[in-house]
């Protein structure tokens, strides 16, 4: 078995090597979960468990798991032996948790596609119609997607608990995991509420970005790995500070790519966030700058965002945000946050591959 083999192997620190091993660990674990589901009910396994396993294995960059593993190494964790294998397995659990978040997020956003394929709710809605089931097809699809997300959460928790059983630091790691789960849901709550209220606040947008993206994507994965390694307080503080800064920069960069990115690379139409009326820092900053400059044309265009979609001028909004300086402001903020985050790592004596990986990630976040 892969698990036994890893006990005797020196585990990698480089991005591609960690990604590959995480994929192998997930494949082994999810095969067992699907087999267990099949014993409960064959249709349940085929319609939900198999799809969840395939979705988790076939897509994603494994970023959170890699960052968690880098946190383990930065905290002084071993690169071989049972402890290292257990830690990497626990890091892999974040990928299953991500499947939960995406399944539910697509329902909330009514997103028809995910990773180039129909989202869970869209696929089940289409099947309901094709098979001529009774009842409301859309509600059926959404209910199935919610179940998929619930199953993913259960599997993620199971994998984490099983992985941590042999680690003396399991209590600290469980605490980080619980906090991370709560924070990502709080961030989603704030995002949805701001959208419903039509909020346009730079401060509230940054707060939601920190909880929904920075904390969940960067800060807490690093924290989880370092906590498993029983890292000293100064290391924990440095990694978490890096994660908070670079994580926000990463989200701000994503906001820019949503509007100005190449659809061939982003995989989505430009301006999806604006069409949904989301309270992004980019939009909130643009409205403030337009008011300060007395740019009534920009104000008129940007104030329509969040209203009926036929009135939203995405290209006009992109031009307005650039004209008033919102785009350049966000680009500058990304660079500042990335530089500050990297500065927090300066006191640490990092493994060369870990240090290079964290530098590269911060540089990517700064390139907006």
Automatic annotation (TrEMBL):
Keyword Metal-binding (UniProt): yes
InterPro entries: Isoprenoid_synthase_dom_sf, Polyprenyl_synt, Polyprenyl_synt_CS
GO biological process, one term: isoprenoid biosynthetic process
Pfam family, one: polyprenyl_synt
Keyword terms, alphabetized: Magnesium, Metal-binding, Transferase
Similarity comment: Belongs to the FPP/GGPP synthase family.
Identification of the protein by name: Geranylgeranyl diphosphate synthase type I
């Amino acid at each position: 078995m892969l698990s036994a083999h890893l006990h005797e192997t020196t585990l990698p620190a480089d991005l591609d090597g960690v990604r590959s091993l995480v994929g192998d660990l997930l494949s082994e674990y999810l095969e067992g979960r699907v087999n267990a589901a099949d014993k409960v009910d064959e249709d349940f396994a085929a319609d939900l468990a198999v799809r969840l396993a395939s979705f988790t294995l076939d897509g994603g960059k494994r970023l959170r798991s890699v960052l968690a593993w880098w946190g383990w190494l930065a905290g002084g964790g071993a690169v071989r032996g049972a402890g290292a294998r257990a830690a990497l397995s626990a890091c892999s659990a974040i990928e299953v948790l991500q499947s939960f978040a995406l399944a539910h997020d697509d329902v909330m956003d009514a997103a028809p596609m995910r990773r180039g394929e129909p989202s869970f709710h869209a696929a089940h809605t289409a099947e309901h119609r094709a098979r001529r089931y009774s009842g409301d097809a859309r509600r059926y699809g959404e209910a199935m997607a919610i179940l998929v997300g619930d199953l993913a959460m259960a599997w993620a928790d199971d994998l984490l608990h099983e992985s941590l059983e042999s680690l003396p630091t399991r209590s600290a790691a469980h605490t980080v995991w619980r906090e991370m789960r709560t924070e990502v849901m709080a961030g989603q709550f704030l995002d949805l509420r701001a959208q419903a209220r039509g909020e346009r606040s730079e401060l509230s947008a940054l707060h939601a970005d920190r909880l929904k993206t920075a904390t969940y994507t960067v800060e807490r994965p690093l924290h989880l790995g370092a906590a498993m390694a029983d890292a000293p307080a100064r290391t924990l503080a440095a990694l978490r500070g890096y994660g908070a800064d670079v994580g926000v920069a990463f989200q701000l960069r994503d906001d820019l790519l949503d509007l100005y990115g190449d659809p061939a690379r982003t995989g989505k139409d430009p301006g999806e966030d604006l069409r949904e009326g989301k309270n992004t820092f980019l939009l909130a900053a643009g409205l403030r700058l337009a008011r300060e400059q007395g740019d009534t044309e920009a104000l008129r265009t940007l104030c329509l965002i969040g209203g009926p979609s036929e009135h939203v001028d995405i290209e006009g909004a992109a031009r307005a945000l650039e004209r008033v300086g919102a785009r350049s402001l966000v680009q500058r903020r990304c660079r500042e946050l990335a530089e500050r985050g990297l500065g927090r790592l300066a006191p640490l004596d990092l493994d060369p591959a870990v240090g290079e990986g964290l530098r590269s990630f911060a540089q990517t976040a700064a390139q907006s």
